[in-house]
Amino acid sequence: MRAWPILLAASSLAACQNANQVLDQQQAQATQAALSRGQFEMNCPTATADLLSRNLINPVLNGPVYAGVQRTEYTIGVSGCGQREVYIALCQVGAVSCVAAKSRS
């Protein structure tokens, strides 16, 4: 149960910030995750990334006893070497890393 105090602290910190502040805080990490994946998958080290959209995803459970994890979601376009891909990057609020996956269109 060591994770409980950490989750509580992270959710308390997020509650003190507005949605734009939370999104701003993790945008660079999300963009870098999508860019790195895109450069690798497209075999294009000169590819660049553009933010297309971003959202704050609130947990389904958010009560005094049980609380879910708040996440940020970024849609990022990566282009270079004559190719373009769209990636979705997800980050857990309060975490230091994000994960990016190719968007299904």
Layout of strands and helices, then pairs:
Layout: H1 3-15, H2 19-41, E1 48-57, E2 71-80, E3 83-92, E4 98-102
Antiparallel strand pairs: 1-2, 2-3, 3-4
Succession of helices and strands: HHEEEE
Low-confidence stretches: 4-9
N→C terminal distance: 40 Å
* Fraction in beta strands: 25-35%
Shape: elongated
Number of strands: 4
Q: Would you tell me the structural class of the helices and strands?
A: alpha+beta
Total of helices:
2
Helical amount: 25-40%
Q: Evaluate the radius of gyration.
A: 15 Å
- Characterize the biggest β-sheet: 4 strands, antiparallel
Number of domains: 1
Cross-sheet strand order for the largest sheet: 1-2-3-4
Mean pLDDT: 84
What distinguishing features does this structure have?
105 residues; alpha+beta; 4-stranded antiparallel β-sheet; 2 helices; 4 strands
Commentary on this structure:
By secondary structure, the chain is α+β, with helices and mostly antiparallel strands. Helices cover 34% and strands 33% of the residues. It has one domain (3-102). The chain is built from two helices and four strands, in the order ααββββ. A four-stranded antiparallel sheet has the order 1-2-3-4, covered by helices on one side.
What's a concise summary of this model?
The chain is α+β, with helices and mostly antiparallel strands. It has helices at residues 3-15, 19-41, and strands at 48-57, 71-80, 83-92, 98-102.
